[in-house]
Backbone:
């Protein structure tokens, strides 16, 4: 699998998704699979789902053409199909958190059983030995976490699909660097399937729904492990964290916020990064573009980290964490100024709520 063939397959994913999305939109409207507006959502009229089905079919077309059915790729596509079915039911009738978690867990177990596991011994080589027992639980948490993280940022037109495309493209580049053409081709196809959906998402009002966000999150979680596992450096297991920094930290802050406020962690709110940026005066499109730029910066840092010595990689990773923390605190500060919350005690109490 060379770069030219991978680009051709990516083109197949793009055009299949682009051509199928209008059909998926019409079918969703006829079946009543629409997103109804409420106090947490940005749209004011019902919007059909169906974009997630189109993204999956676009990616599946490339997967079938590639035709390399290893234990890992077979386990991945079976688990992905399970999540597509789950997402369709969720978009139709709205499922509670527990059944979604159970099905996501089954999908994660299928992938882990196929051999896709984070190598903990490589991550902390020379510092802590015999960490193999941590590989499966951490892989499980990674897959579940990223699957839901993409879902959480799916709040504006083009946001989740664009961030997923940038992240998948980064995974593809890292995989090419590490001599894994199959993972690179699959990641590139995932990126272009997302891009094939974007024009319709922006222009014709169709959402990917939980079907699309769970599939993209799950695929990114799985492919990022596959794409970095052969890195020689101990830094390899941290590269996916940098690639997916925006959804990861937005999810972490949401969990902290809801725990502190004594609310269920699965309960939605309007305090995610994109909501905060819009409250500060950015338009919807400006917010999406801003997050695209930040995601691309983290993607570039992840690619750079995969190429440099481990010690330099750790420095870049630490700097990225510091950037996220400082940026989040600055955003909190700006939001407090915007809402004119005066007084140290009141501002101190509101910091967690503003994350």
Residues:
């Amino acid at each position: 699998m060379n770069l030219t063939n991978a680009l051709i397959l990516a083109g197949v994913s793009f055009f299949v998704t682009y051509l199928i999305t209008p059909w998926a939109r019409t079918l969703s409207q006829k079946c009543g699979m629409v997103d109804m507006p409420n106090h947490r959502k940005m749209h004011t009229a019902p919007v059909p789902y169906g974009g997630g089905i189109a993204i999956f079919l676009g990616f599946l077309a490339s997967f079938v053409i590639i035709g390399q059915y290893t234990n890992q790729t077979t386990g991945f596509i079976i688990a992905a199909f399970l999540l597509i079915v789950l997402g369709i039911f969720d978009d139709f009738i709205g499922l509670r958190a527990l059944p979604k978690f159970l099905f996501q867990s089954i999908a994660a177990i299928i992938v882990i059983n196929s051999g896709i596991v984070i190598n903990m011994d490589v991550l902390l080589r020379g510092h802590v030995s015999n960490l193999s027992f941590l590989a499966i639980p951490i892989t499980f948490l990674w897959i579940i976490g990223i699957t839901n993280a993409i879902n959480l940022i799916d709040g504006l037109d083009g946001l989740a699909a664009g961030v997923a495309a940038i992240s998948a493209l980064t995974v593809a580049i890292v995989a090419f660097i590490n001599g894994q053409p199959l993972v690179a081709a699959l990641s590139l196809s995932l990126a272009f399937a997302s891009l094939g959906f974007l024009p319709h998402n922006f222009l014709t009002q169709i959402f990917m729904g939980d079907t699309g966000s769970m599939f993209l999150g799950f695929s990114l979680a799985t492919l990022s492990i596959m794409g970095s596992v052969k890195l020689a450096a101990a830094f390899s297991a941290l590269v996916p964290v940098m690639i997916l920094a925006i959804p990861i930290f937005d999810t972490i802050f949401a969990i902290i916020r809801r725990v502190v406020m004594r609310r269920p962690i699965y309960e939605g709110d309007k305090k995610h990064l994109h909501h905060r940026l819009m409250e500060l005066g950015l338009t919807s499109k400006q917010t999406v573009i801003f997050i695209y730029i930040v995601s691309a910066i983290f993607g570039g840092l992840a690619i750079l980290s995969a190429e440099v010595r481990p010690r330099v990689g750790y420095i870049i990773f630490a700097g990225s964490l510091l950037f996220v923390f400082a940026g989040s605190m600055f955003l909190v500060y700006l939001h407090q100024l915007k809402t004119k919350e005066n007084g140290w005690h009141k501002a101190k109490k509101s910091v967690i709520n503003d994350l």
In short: The CA atoms of residues 203 and 328 lie 31 Å apart. Residues 3-119+128-354 form one domain. Confidence is low (pLDDT under 50) at residues 342-349.
